[in-house]
């Protein structure tokens, strides 16, 4: 339904998106993950025809959208990372403005405004000014605005950053319902791995402007089939101890956690005895040692060397 072909964007001499190839089938929910600076937002901006690529193409149903983006814009809704609302207008007035911008017919627009307000759970607050809303409520109205023209494709760029748990859960349920009940095709970016695991059928992992892995969650987790993830609870934290563990044989990645360390190591390792020896030297006690079932977060750490929120 929607695909990018060697999509590339450079700013001066810096290539921030490097020949990205990705696709969305109709009715899919697809995650786009990457650490800060990976090029996700620039990729989304090019797909949405907000900025022009340096080279490559974006195709809708096999037709290029670069020269003539109007067909794409008719079927695409975008929820940007930043709140895009008028603070001095009410929720209803904002939606009426954006509905007119989408050229929704007047009679249909009144009905549609009530429908999208109902979807995001703010129908009873529609006459209140946006400036009086919490951050989570503003983000819900942001989503409502993107749904006014009943888009076939919805792109959400980190829609739950910095909001309360109630609004976050409401947004996730809204996205799930749009995808599963209404058949809306979704491209979703987030700094919360659990959101992508809940909502998305397939995942692209992006780093330094390139797609470095793609597949279903199960396919991506199979990358770690020859490795173990080990959680280690320590009596205290020590940078010197962490640096020492990074140098041990068979250790691939080390991440500090609240409890101690999370270690990615090759299968059939002899890590425990080396850990105990290193801990004794630093005056640290190992309180717990557990081999964990690999997660999508572990795959991300393995491929990028960073956690998703870095």
Tell me the layout of helices and strands:
Layout: E1 2-11, E2 14-24, E3 29-33, H1 40-47, E4 55-60, E5 63-64, H2 70-75, E6 76-79, H3 91-101, H4 106-119, H5 135-147, E7 153-157, H6 165-180, E8 185-189, H7 193-199, E9 202-207, E10 210-216, H8 217-221, E11 227-234, H9 239-246, E12 251-256, E13 260-266, H10 271-282, E14 286-292, H11 296-304
Parallel strand pairs: 3-8, 3-9, 6-7, 7-8
Antiparallel strand pairs: 1-2, 1-4, 4-5, 9-10, 11-13, 11-14, 12-13
Q: Which residue ranges are poorly predicted, with pLDDT under 50 across at least 5 consecutive positions?
A: none
Q: Find the count of extended strands (DSSP E, 2+ residues).
A: 14
Mean pLDDT: 90
Largest sheet: 6 strands, mixed
> Could you say what the CATH topology of the largest domain is called?
Rossmann fold
Computed Rg: 23 Å
Number of helices: 11
Structural class: alpha/beta
Strand content: 25-35%
Q: Shape from CA axes? A: globular
Describe the structure.
The protein has helices spanning 40-47, 70-75, 91-101, 106-119, 135-147, 165-180, 193-199, 217-221, 239-246, 271-282, 296-304; strands spanning 2-11, 14-24, 29-33, 55-60, 63-64, 76-79, 153-157, 185-189, 202-207, 210-216, 227-234, 251-256, 260-266, 286-292. It has 310 residues and is an alpha/beta fold. The protein folds into 2 domains: 2-220, Rossmann fold; 225-304, Alpha-Beta Plaits. The protein has a 6-stranded mixed sheet, with helices on both faces. Strands 2-1-4-5 form a 4-stranded antiparallel sheet, covered by helices on one side. It has a 4-stranded antiparallel sheet with strand order 12-13-11-14, sandwiched between helices. Strand 9 and strand 10 (210-216) form a beta hairpin. The radius of gyration is 23 Å and the shape is globular. The chain starts with a strand and ends in a 6-residue tail after the last helix. The model has no long low-confidence stretch (mean pLDDT 90).
């Amino acid at each position: 339904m929607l695909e990018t072909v060697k999509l590339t964007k450079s700013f001066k001499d810096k290539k921030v998106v490097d020949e990205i190839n990705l696709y969305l089938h109709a009715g899919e929910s697809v995650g786009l993950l990457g650490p800060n600076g990976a090029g996700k937002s620039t990729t989304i901006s090019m797909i949405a025809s907000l900025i022009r690529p340096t080279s490559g193409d974006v195709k809708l149903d096999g037709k290029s959208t670069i020269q003539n983006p109007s067909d794409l814009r008719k079927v695409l809704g975008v929820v940007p990372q930043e709140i895009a609302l008028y603070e001095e207008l009410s929720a209803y007035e904002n939606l009426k403005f954006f509905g007119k911008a989408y050229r929704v017919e007047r009679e249909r627009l009144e009905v549609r405004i009530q429908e999208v307000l109902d979807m995001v759970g703010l129908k009873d607050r529609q006459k209140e000014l946006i400036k009086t809303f919490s951050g989570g409520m503003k983000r819900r109205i942001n989503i409502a605005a993107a749904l006014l023209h009943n888009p076939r494709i919805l792109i959400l760029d980190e829609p739950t950053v910095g909001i309360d748990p109630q609004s976050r859960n409401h947004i996730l349920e809204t996205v799930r319902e749009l995808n599963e009940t209404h058949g809306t095709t979704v491209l979703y970016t987030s700094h919360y791995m659990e959101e992508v695991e809940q909502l998305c059928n397939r995942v692209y992992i992006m780093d330094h402007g390139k797609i470095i892995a793609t597949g279903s969650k199960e396919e991506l987790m199979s990358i770690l089939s020859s490795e173990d993830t080990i959680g280690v609870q320590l009596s205290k934290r020590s940078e010197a101890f962490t640096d020492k563990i990074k140098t041990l044989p068979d250790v691939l990645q080390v991440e500090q956690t609240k409890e101690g360390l999370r270690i990615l190591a090759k299968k059939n390792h002899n890590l425990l005895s080396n850990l105990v020896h290193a801990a004794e030297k630093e005056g640290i006690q190992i309180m717990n040692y557990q081999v964990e079932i690999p997660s999508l977060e572990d795959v991300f750490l393995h491929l990028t060397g960073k956690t998703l929120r870095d």
